[in-house]
Design brief:
189 residues, alpha+beta, 7 strands, 52% strand
């Protein structure tokens, strides 16, 4: 019975933590500014850790930057986040959301940033206009602030896309089959 209570508390905590993964602000402009600040901070960190990424983004059709929080409790995992996709030639910004749900063994909480680099204009446009769903992930991370270690980094999805993932803080050990949905944020566009 005690295990059931602990499990219930963990689920409630994960729901509350994941619901925090939304842009802060009272107005639409405040929320947009919050997303753009997250993007800028993430790119600074990316360029410091992977200097080659700067020229890759500059020469790409477009890119997207996301802030995500995922939780994994035993066999259930979920998460959500926000971000922005930027078309390089026009500079157009499309604010986006992401949601994640999955099953698989694990336990943990992970706060991370993801940078998508789209080498192909068609793939970028499909991502922005139609959204995406994909899944399957394996992680090992133990990090809190500047302490600890994380395994992840650069991941190639296909020849026209590169994804860099950087852990902000969190502890996770998980292997999940998950569906992640990226779509436009109608409230911010």
């Amino acid at each position: 019975m005690r295990l059931f209570h602990i499990f219930g508390i963990c689920i409630l905590a994960s729901i509350l933590l994941v619901s925090c993964a939304t842009p802060k602000g009272n107005t639409i402009q405040d929320k947009r500014s919050y997303v753009l600040n997250m993007k800028n901070e993430t790119l600074i960190k990316l360029y410091r850790e992977y200097p080659i990424a700067k020229s890759k983004i500059k020469n790409a059709a477009g890119y997207a930057v996301f802030s995500n929080i995922n939780t994994n409790l035993f066999l259930f995992s979920s998460g959500n986040g926000y971000g922005v996709a930027i078309h390089n030639s026009s500079g157009k910004k499309t604010y986006m959301k992401m949601n994640f749900i999955g099953i698989g063994p694990g336990i943990g909480l992970k706060d991370f940033r993801a940078v998508f680099i789209f080498k192909n204009k068609h793939v970028f446009n499909d991502f922005v206009e139609k959204g995406w769903e994909f899944g399957g992930q394996a992680d090992a991370a133990a990090k809190s602030g500047e302490k600890g270690m994380a395994v992840g980094g650069e991941m190639y999805v296909e020849k026209d896309i590169e994804i860099y993932q950087m852990t902000e803080a969190g502890v996770a050990l998980q292997a999940t089959i998950a569906g992640t949905k990226y779509r436009k944020d109608t409230g911010l566009n």
